[in-house]
Amino acid sequence: MRIDLHCHSTASDGTDTPAELVRNASAAGLDVVALTDHDTTRGYAEAVAALPRGLTLVTGAELSCRIDGISMHMLAYLFDPEEPALLAERELVRDDRVPRARGMVARLNELGVPVTWEQVARIAGEGSVGRPHVATALVELGVVPTVSDAFTEDWLADGGRAWVAKHETDPFEAIRLVKGAGGVTVFAHPGARKRGRTVPESVIAELAAAGLDGIEVDHMDHDADTRARLRALAAELGLLVTGSSDYHGSRKTCALGEYTTDPEVYGEITRRATGAFPVPGTGGA
Fold first, then answer.
1. Alpha-carbon radius of gyration of the chain
2. pTM of the complete model
3. Please, are residues 31 and 45 in contact by the beta-carbon 8 Å criterion?
4. What separation, in Å, do the N-terminal and C-terminal C-alpha atoms of the chain show?
5. What pLDDT is stored for residue 95 in this prediction?
């Protein structure tokens, strides 16, 4: 059983539509795929309508969080998408994305980069605009060779020359809200140092005590030593261990199913969730 619990569509910053994502997941031999767009559930209906027979969809979101000045992402699975408190917080984060992206365009212009808001908006399309869309604009202009190369201190990394802050949820509040909506929480790529500062293990321990369910260990941004350290930390703290591709379509090099989650861990996630249930495919549209 092959399970990928972290994927993005055009509802946020992926390049596959939700329908294309589930079809590609099936073609890649996955049995279970999670749709975890940034701070939005807007892709759910299209993904469910197109879900191929033999593929199960886990609904979720990747929530933007910040603690002690450090940006972090919280994967939330199988929560009630209409629960008012969590919905209001997601909308607050999502609504701040547009002025933030406009601010990054302005800073890039000050640095002599001729990027425009119209270019970024075109790239984002109907998706929730974010840094990867600005990064893609930099690639189009030949400023950087790849999207990943835009996430440096020279450009869009936290604290970088063109970085602009946005509203982000306190992770302890995120855990409380997701739990209140019947969901399960997993700290996404906690050891991804190339993205910037990472949350100390002492804080991960505090998050575990506050109800964090798991940490994403097997991920393209974690080397072997980091994966071993995080696996040991998860065992010490009683946290679930997941593995995921963090698929973004053609925007990143990772492939669907590049890293996967153990079926027993997936089973525990579904047992803990009360807000929603995995959706089995019936043939799709």
1. 18
2. 0.86
3. no
4. 24
5. 84
Q: What is the largest CA-CA distance in the chain?
A: 52
pLDDT digits (tens, 9 = 90+) for 79-106: 999 999 999 999 988 888 889 999 999 9
Q: Which letter does DSSP use for residue 51 in this model?
A: P
- What the block records as the tokens of 264 is 């027993």
Closest to 160 (Cα-Cα) out of 119, 108, 206: 108
3-state helix, strand, coil in the chain (%, to 5): 40, 15, 45
Residue 178's pLDDT is what? 98
Residue 72: its H or E element: strand 70-77
Residue 210: CA atoms inside 13 Å, Cβ hemisphere, count? Answer: 19
Please answer whether residues 146 and 152 qualify as being in contact, where contact means their C-beta atoms are separated by less than 8 angstroms.
no
Q: pLDDT tens across 177-191, in order? A: 999 999 999 999 999
111 CB neighbour count, 10 Å cutoff: 13
Helix (H) or strand (E) run with residue 228 in it: helix 224-237
What pLDDT, on a 0 to 100 scale, did the predictor assign at position 285? Answer: 56
Partners of residue 77 on adjacent β-strands:
60, 184
Question: CA torsion sign, 267 to 30 to 7 to 91?
Answer: negative
* HSE-up (13 A, CA, CB side) for residue 56: 17
For the segment 226-236, what is each residue's pLDDT rounded down to a tens digit?
999 999 999 99
